[in-house]
Amino acid sequence: MRITNGRVFNGSCLAEGDVFINEGLFVEESAYVDDGAVVDAAGMTVAPGLIDLHFHGAVGFDFCDATPQSLAAIAAYEASQGITAICPATMTFTEETLLPIMANAAAFTPAADQAALVGINMEGPFISPNKVGAQNPLYVQQADGHMLERLQEASGGLIKLVDIAPEEPGALEFIAREHESVRISVAHTCATYDDAAAAFDAGARHVTHLYNAMPGLHHRTPGPIAAAAERDDVTPEIICDGVHIHPAMVRLAFKLFGPQRMILISDTMEAAGLADGEYSLGGQPVTVRGKHATLHDGTLAGSNTNLALCLGTAVREMGIPLEHALRAATLNPACALGIQGSRGSIAAGKVADCILLDDQVRVQQVVLRGQPL
């Protein structure tokens, strides 16, 4: 395939050019075999396939269902929206519940119309009982390295992110011991600035849904956000659904951390792609009305969107430059997951996942592993 006449996002900026694909990979023009389809992308932006490293489900299914049917349906929906690589998140459950979720992921092989499963994000259970958000407080526990190792073995090595509240007993020791095998994320936390700084000193390198389920910025008690901003190697993820965070705070985050570190996520749950109604998340009932997904006590329970819609919202409604938003949804999550050698940008030798966006930042075409959907 050859994609012509588009503005191609190369990981940092947009430039006029063509994209060449052979046998499921991006190639240089000199290596292109000119016998495939030609796609005219005039007036379009050609970008890498999006990578969502924090979401829970879609179209009535949850990653924690632990069934092949659920994972297949989620992966197909995500691919259809331009999210070509996924790292779904677990909820706060017991090890007994988490083990079959990991095993189900390990057994998954994507069909031709399904996104690749490139990791698992463990959002629980090593969080603060005082900042559970929509997590189930019954299953919150202290960090347990042996438990993580058993789950990692069941997943076939797919666990890439592990959330932790660093102020909890044993958390810093866990971070120091496990940070070389997984990316540790400060999350669902009451951490002070000093608590968070100690976590980053110990090896934590990520922050889960920035601003949400953590202390905010304050001039006398700066909290974990300021501690993360001071570390050039810490990546914050942010939900740009237009509900979780005011646009001014999204713009502030991009200025504070810089576009080379920000990561867009959807944090979407099983209602994505469906009508308003009653759903569930982590075994708890959720009411969905438009973009709002809430527990019955009013607590936000993930989002009802997808990463492609968040990308458009960030650009159109929040004033984030297109190049910055694209990087935050492609190359930056790839780097955080350690898969930047194969995904995250349009470069020779990488998997040929890409999307065509119109001038309203809406996905008009998806190319998945070199084949148009």
| Global Rg | 20 Å
Number of strands: 23
Question: Distance between the terminal alpha carbons, to the nearest Å?
Answer: 13 Å
Measured by DSSP, the beta-strand proportion falls in: 15-25%
Question: Strand pairing plus helix content: what structural class?
Answer: alpha/beta
In terms of per-residue confidence, which ranges show pLDDT below 50 for 5 or more consecutive residues?
none
Counting DSSP H or I runs of 4 or more residues, the number of helices is: 10
Helix content: 25-40%
Please summarize the sheet with the most strands: 8 strands, mixed
Shape: globular
Mean pLDDT across the residues is: 95
What does this structure look like?
The chain has ten helices and 23 strands. The chain has helices at residues 68-80, 95-106, 145-155, 171-178, 193-202, 223-229, 247-257, 307-316, 322-329, 331-337, and strands at residues 2-9, 14-22, 25-27, 38-40, 45-48, 50-52, 57-58, 61-62, 83-86, 89-90, 116-117, 120-122, 159-164, 183-186, 206-207, 235-239, 263-265, 277-281, 284-289, 292-295, 354-357, 363-368, 371-372. The longest helix is centred in the N-terminal third of the chain and has 13 residues, at 68-80. Helix 2 (95-106) packs parallel to helix 3, helix 5 packs across helix 6 (223-229) and helix 8 packs antiparallel against helix 9 (322-329). With 373 residues, it is α/β, with parallel strands linked by helices. Strands 1, 2, 3, 4, 5, 21, 22 and 23 form an eight-stranded mixed sheet that branches. Strands 10-12-13-14-15-16-17 form a seven-stranded parallel sheet, sandwiched between helices. A three-stranded parallel sheet has the order 6-9-11.
